[in-house]
TrEMBL record, chain A:
<dbReference type="InterPro" id="IPR013563">
    <property type="entry name" value="Oligopep_ABC_C"/>
</dbReference>
<dbReference type="InterPro" id="IPR027417">
    <property type="entry name" value="P-loop_NTPase"/>
</dbReference>
<comment type="similarity">
    <text>Belongs to the ABC transporter superfamily.</text>
</comment>
<dbReference type="InterPro" id="IPR003593">
    <property type="entry name" value="AAA+_ATPase"/>
</dbReference>
<keyword id="KW-0547">Nucleotide-binding</keyword>
<dbReference type="Pfam" id="PF08352">
    <property type="entry name" value="oligo_HPY"/>
</dbReference>
<dbReference type="InterPro" id="IPR050319">
    <property type="entry name" value="ABC_transp_ATP-bind"/>
</dbReference>
<keyword id="KW-0813">Transport</keyword>
<dbReference type="InterPro" id="IPR003439">
    <property type="entry name" value="ABC_transporter-like_ATP-bd"/>
</dbReference>
Automatic annotation (TrEMBL), chain B:
<keyword id="KW-0547">Nucleotide-binding</keyword>
<dbReference type="InterPro" id="IPR050388">
    <property type="entry name" value="ABC_Ni/Peptide_Import"/>
</dbReference>
<dbReference type="InterPro" id="IPR003439">
    <property type="entry name" value="ABC_transporter-like_ATP-bd"/>
</dbReference>
<keyword id="KW-1003">Cell membrane</keyword>
<dbReference type="GO" id="GO:0005524">
    <property type="term" value="F:ATP binding"/>
</dbReference>
<dbReference type="InterPro" id="IPR017871">
    <property type="entry name" value="ABC_transporter-like_CS"/>
</dbReference>
<keyword id="KW-0813">Transport</keyword>
<dbReference type="InterPro" id="IPR027417">
    <property type="entry name" value="P-loop_NTPase"/>
</dbReference>
<protein>
    <submittedName>
        <fullName>ABC transporter ATP-binding protein</fullName>
    </submittedName>
</protein>
Length: 308, 340
């Protein structure tokens, strides 16, 4: 049985207008998506800005109300739970935010930031709390003596690790990482990514890794889902997606990644032009009359593509 | 190269005042840009690449900045120009593309008016001629409906479209040199590819020199002719793009290459550069500035006073520490840095 199962999740925002500000249409941020996560794996959610990947992550966290659908976490539907039950489950799902500069309260000390989840869910004496915070700070490679410092005293990579320490304190099972390294420099990025892999092994974590950077996704993820306008266009293992992309949108995304070898410059440009013209010419083949993609169909055991 | 370079920076030092002292954010940088050439400046945040660009444009607040050295552009030293004279160069002969298209555009002006603005300042075209030229520019940067976009406000456009407007502003007066400060960082990959193609097209048409400032080595590989790698205010390595990607020499350049997750490397773990980028106040002002981050390399490998030396034709490297450099976790002799 899947660890986390999302069934037909929809998040619609009403557009109001006209007489009595009636609902005239909907913005379909997430439109009928289903996917599964197995325990211990890293699942990548990729897409361009506005495709609904962050909304999906936040809905699973319970930060955004879903319009319909199911989010089954260990076989219980998070969306149908009452508040108290939901709060108990919320302990098991934590989030790492994108921007380490705005996701840490500048007026709180590291101790208070990292201990906040503990204070919400567990009753610990100040001494126990301090010990626990220091334990996790050490785990993320920060000096445990730094608990009385403020966020501005740390560099970007260190701040992101404070955010990770905060996510770890309640021993979560699932971590939703929403663009965890986009705001960081390459060398710091490497540090945080390595570290995320280390703690994954140590704490047996499952990651839902949301990113627009296909290089990082390929490096980190076991399975990948590609989103476009709130829907999935393709899903498969990292290998399926990168070596055998089927949907034109996936091909276009992958061809847009800059090639690190300057010798391939011309080929890459040619490939990109070919795919762009294919994208224009065969648009009707991959998208229906409303510009929506079709439903996912399996083409192998692991690989699903949205084809008519 | 036989002809005179378009831009020649000689021993530029840009220092900012903090308290009563000046600290150099750009230290002894010499760089040339030729016509029809894309020179990329690569480095992490805080290495001084943007400070260098702003120095060329003269955009640093004068009362807190000290600029030393020379920036020769078309036979003039930009640093000795008065504000008025500089205003005539800025936007006309040197155009700039900023990183974030949302903050670079004025939210209260239509896109058309913003593009016209630099023409109003630098030329005496009639308003009808300006309008025509603006629409032509919008078409050139690949905006599908230029007449409509002319009347639209920046918030009505998507990020990629806004960046196109910013590019149109930069090239409005046919500049000889365009400085692009992280032009694609705020954009999605597919849009990034489009903007890169657009810049290349524009460059082929107009033969402008481009200074491309970025931290993304992929963008560099696709666009640049020559690359300068900056660390802690200094250029540590300059070479043409093929040489640099095939044979990076400076320890910092090699570490950077190793830390990008790329499809060609099969390694599970990414390389991490030890330590942190020193802040402006704590920069080591003598010796190799990268020394503290490669502590396993002995002191005697470094120069006391590292200089940028030509190690092969047109390939310059600073400090001698590259000669015996190896990564801390690799065997000496294993020289595979993840590029096939």
């Amino acid at each position: 049985m899947a660890f986390l199962k999302v069934n037909n999740l929809k998040v619609y925002y009403p557009i109001r207008g006209g007489f009595f500000r009636r609902v005239v249409a909907h913005v379909k941020a997430v439109d009928d998506i289903s996917f599964e996560l197995n325990q211990g794996e890293t699942y990548g959610l990729v897409g361009e800005s506005g495709c609904g990947k962050t909304t999906t992550g936040r809905t699973i966290m319970g930060l955004i109300k879903a319009t319909s659908g199911e989010v089954l976490f260990e076989n219980q539907d998070l969306l149908k739970m009452n508040r108290r039950d939901f709060n108990q489950h919320r302990k098991d799902i934590q989030m790492i935010f994108q921007d380490p500069y705005s996701s840490l309260n500048p007026r709180k000390r590291v101790l208070d930031i990292v201990a906040e989840p503990l204070r919400n869910f567990e009753r610990l004496s100040p001494a126990e709390e301090k010990k626990k915070v220091q334990f996790y700070l050490e785990k993320v490679g920060l000096n445990p003596e730094a608990i009385y410092n403020y966020p501005h005293e740390f560099s970007g990579g260190q701040r992101q690790r404070i955010g990770i320490a905060r996510a770890l304190t309640l021993k979560p099972k699932l971590i939703i990482a929403d663009e965890p390294v986009s705001a960081l420099d390459v060398s710091v990025q490497a540090q945080v990514l390595n570290f995320m892999q280390d703690i994954q092994k140590e704490f047996n974590l499952t990651y839902l890794f949301i990113s627009h950077d296909l290089g990082i996704i390929q490096h980190m993820c076991d399975r990948i889902g590609i989103m476009y306008r709130g829907q999935f266009v393709e899903e498969g293992t990292s290998r399926d997606i990168y070596t055998n992309p089927q949907h034109i949108y996936t091909k276009r995304l992958i061809s847009a990644i800059p090639d690190i070898n300057p010798e391939n410059r011309e080929n890459q440009m040619k490939l990109r032009q070919e795919i762009n013209s294919e994208y224009k010419n065969s648009y009707d083949k991959y998208f229906n009359a409303e510009g929506k993609v079709y439903n996912l169909k399996p083409i192998s055991d692991t690989h699903l593509v949205a084809l008519p | 190269m036989s002809n005179q370079p378009l831009l020649q920076i000689q021993n530029l030092r840009t220092s900012f005042r903090i308290g009563d002292d000046y600290f150099a954010a750009v230290d002894d940088v010499s760089l040339t840009v030729n016509e029809n050439e894309v020179v990329a400046i690569v480095g992490e945040s805080g290495c001084g690449k943007s400070a260098l660009a702003m120095s060329i444009m003269g955009l640093h607040p004068q009362e807190r900045t000290k600029l030393e050295g020379k920036i020769n552009f078309k036979g003039k030293n930009l640093l000795s120009l008065s504000t008025n004279e500089m205003n005539k160069v800025r936007g006309k002969e040197i155009g700039m593309i900023f990183q974030d298209p949302l903050t670079a555009l004025n939210p209260l002006m239509t896109c058309g008016k913003q593009i016209e603005e630099s023409m109003t300042v630098h030329t005496n075209m009639s308003s009808e001629a300006k309008r025509k030229r603006t629409i032509e520019l919008l078409k050139k940067v690949g905006i599908p409906n230029p007449e409509r976009t002319y009347k639209q406000y920046p918030h009505e456009l998507s990020g990629g479209m806004r960046q196109r407007v910013v590019i149109a502003i930069a090239v409005a007066c046919d500049p000889l040199l365009v400085i692009a400060d992280e032009p694609t960082t705020a954009l999605d990959v597919t849009i990034q590819a489009q903007i890169m193609d657009l810049l290349k097209d524009l460059q082929n048409q107009t033969k402008t020199g481009i200074i491309l400032i970025t931290h993304d080595l992929g963008v560099v590989a696709e666009m640049a002719d020559r690359v300068a790698v900056m660390y802690a205010g200094e250029i540590v390595e300059i070479a043409d793009v093929h040489t640099l990607f095939k044979n990076p020499l400076h320890p910092y350049t090699r570490s950077l290459f190793n830390s990008i997750p790329s499809s060609t490397s099969t390694k599970d773990r990414l390389h991490v550069i030890q330590g942190i980028v020193p802040s402006l106040k704590n920069l080591p002002r003598s010796g190799c500035r990268f020394k503290d981050r490669i502590k396993w390399i002995g002191d005697k490998e470094h120069e006391v006073n590292p200089l940028l030396r030509e190690v092969s034709p047109n390939h310059y490297v600073r400090c001698t520490c590259y000669k015996n450099f190896h990564f801390s976790d690799e065997d000496v002799g294993d020289m595979n840095y993840g590029i096939s």
